[in-house]
Structure formats: structure tokens, C-alpha cells
Amino acid sequence: MYLDDRQRELEEVMETQGLWPADSPWVRRAILDTVPRHQFAPDQLWTWNGHGAYVPVDRDRDQDAWADLVYAGPQDSAIIQILDGLPSSSLSCVAVVADMLDSLILEPGQRILEVGTGVGWNAGLLASRAGAGLVTSVEVDPDLAAAAGQRLAAAGLDVAVHAGDGNTGWPAGAPYDGVIATYAVDEIPWAWIEQTRPGGRLVIPWGRLGHVALTVADDGKSATGWVQGLGMFMPSRGIEQGREHHAIRGDGPPDRTVPAAGGLRALTDANLLFALRVSHPDIRIATEETKEGLTIRLHDGVSSWATAVIDQTGTTAAYEGGPRQLLAEADAGRRHWEERGSPELWDFGMTVTPDGQSVWCGAADAGPYMP
Description:
Order of helices and strands: HHEEHEEHEHEHEEHEEEHEHEEEEHEE
Family: Belongs to the methyltransferase superfamily. L-isoaspartyl/D-aspartyl protein methyltransferase family.
Number of helices: 10
Strand order of the largest sheet: 7-6-5-8-9-10-11-17-18
Subcellular location: Cytoplasm
Main location: cytoplasm
Structural class: alpha+beta
Number of strands: 18
EC number: 2.1.1.77
Protein name: Protein-L-isoaspartate O-methyltransferase
Mean pLDDT: 92
CATH architecture of the largest domain: 3-Layer(aba) Sandwich
């Protein structure tokens, strides 16, 4: 019963926040009734202890804490695996899963390729809509793939789960009517488009900050589409994630105190953050609002960092370290965004060809969005 209560609470929050997709009512039914989230959550999950480490939460030891992680909230994922001290796989947050399934425009009878099986929950949702034997899922971790296959079979869902490199797709099952990825890539693998029929649709997390929906051209030589929403995903396995802000910052004094740019508070705008992801892809930005004020942290994953603190009086203190002037770079990106009319993230799109990809704003023929 405790799981039913938490599921009901999540349903109500999703409803209150308008997160259930109106154009795809099947998604709500599948998440709540056909393929409930808790049936695919492993008995051991992981959580941040606030003191520098992730710690396990076991279902048999603390059922309530485990359930709190499974049904934490619409925007919260549940970590299922830790490698080298960092999360490497998760049970994706409900809001983004629902949004991406809606973006796929999935119809019964379609053949779907999923890359990144994880626990198998998303594959189960796909199969509940597409039908038996029509979903192929690829997972790079053989142990995760085997466990997901067992969960799907136990739930009576016919999904072909394969252990392999998702970036190469699964040619044996091609052509597919649609492809959906559950991990983020910076460069869309051409194999995914090549294995999708003309007119088919691909929904892909891009750059760990948003997801795009692409449609394959009639000649199969390109795929074009729009950004659909925000959502942070773990990167493709094996991709170097770089150093975090605290590791680059260290414990010593900053290299320099810098004048604070006037537009720093704009960095809380999700639309600007996405635009900066396009124009300055190696700068990572995090903001934290507390009763003391707003803290903004920037770093490049290598050797440069910046921190700005805006207190309740509006006074700003800004510090930097490393060879780059990240605050100045971010401010230049902000000015470029404002000069372009402060476009929203939905104004951005992407075109992919065998030769590469281009992110544009407003129209596909507008050229790359560059400062």
C-alpha cells in the first residue's frame, strides 16, 4: 500500500504541474497502471549523503527510504549504479520520460529501437504501446541488460534486450519507425538515423541539458527537428565527464577577483542556459538560490573555474581561477543571446547529416547559432 500512496502522490503532482502529455494519454496510463515504476527499481538504490559520497539504500533494510527515492518527485531520477564513485545509470525522472515518449509520437505496431536499457522501465513503457516483439533495446552493461530482460519478462512485456554499444544501434532489427535514447550524446550517431526509415522519428538527449526530436528526410540523407524540452541525462558510457567545480577550485585562494557583469542573474534563465550550452559547450553552469542569496558556479571541466555570489542587497562578489575568464565568456554569450531576441529553447533546432550536425535558431536554413 505504501507504494500505491506514493504513486498516487506523484500522479497528483504531475497533474498539478501540467506534466502529463495531453496529446499522448497512453503515457499516463502506462506509467500508473501498465508498467509501474517500482516494479523496475532494483532493490538497491544510491543517494548522496551530503558529505562527499554516494551511499546505498537497500529496500529490505529501509523500505520507506527506498520508496522515497523511487517516487521522489517528477523531476527526480533514482540512481541505480555507481562506478568509480560517480552515478553511471539511473531510473529516469518521470516528467522527462513522459515528455520524451510524447515527443516520439509512438503508435501501436511501430518498430522501435531504444538505446540505453538501464533497468528496463522505459523499454516496458514503449512495449506497452508498440506491442509485443516490436521493441529492441541495447544496453552497454551486460549485467544491467540481463537484469532488465528478467524484469521485462516477469512483467509479461516482450522486448528484445541486447548487450552492446548503443551508439552503433542494432542493425539486425532495422529499419525502425523510431529511435529513443536514454543517455546524452554531444554528437548524434549517424547509425541511429541510418537505421530509421524515411519519415521516422528520433528522440535524443543532447548535451545533458535538453532533448531533440528529429525526423528523417525522405531521401534518408539527413534528419532535422526541434528541441523539445530540458532534462539532464548521464552521458554515453566511456565519455570523459571532466573534473567537477570543487576539484578544479581546490582549497586555495582564487587567482583573481573580477568585476561582476551586470547580467549575472540572467544565468538562472533556462532559455539562456540552453543558448550558452550551444554557443559555449564546454562551460558548465550551476546556480543555487538560498536565503543568503544566489551563488553561480562555472567551470570548464579542465582547469578554469569561476564563482559569483549575489547577496540579498544585490551586492556581487566574483572570483576566478585558471587560464580562462569564464564569467566574461558567459557574459559575451548572454549578450549574443539578447541581441538575437532572447530566443527560448524551443526556438532551437538541429540538422544531422553523415558529415556532422548543426544547431540553429529559428529556422534550419538560418545557419549555425554562433556568437
